[in-house]
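Researcher: Structure for this, please.
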Amino acid sequence: MKKLIVAAVSIAALTPAGLASARTDAPARAATKISVRGKEFSFHLSKRSIPKPGKVTFSFHNVGTMAHDFRIGGKQTRLIGPGKTARLRVTFHKKGRFTYLCTVPGHAQAGMKGVFTVR
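Model: Predicted structure, token format:
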């Protein structure tokens, strides 16, 4: 009889309800991924806004013929050459409009800038 009770308890612990109740960690919220293509003298973002504050991974690909970088939310990629890619992870803590730009002198003034919105 004791073996039967132990077996019943063991089976109950392996049921989906038993497994679900054992989980205490909620999965971490994944970062939104946004592709950025930069060239002389413009940027193209795959998304220009996100619906609420959170983490965003910008993947900046330089499709131009000279070196560029990408700055947003107080962070910036390194200067990258033509055909290269750099990733930039930014956490937006509040709603707002955030300017992005290339910091190479004269590039933002020539058009390498824009506004990213967190709604």
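Researcher: Any notable elements?
Model: Confidence is low (pLDDT under 50) at residues 4-26. Residues 2-14 form the longest helix (13 residues).
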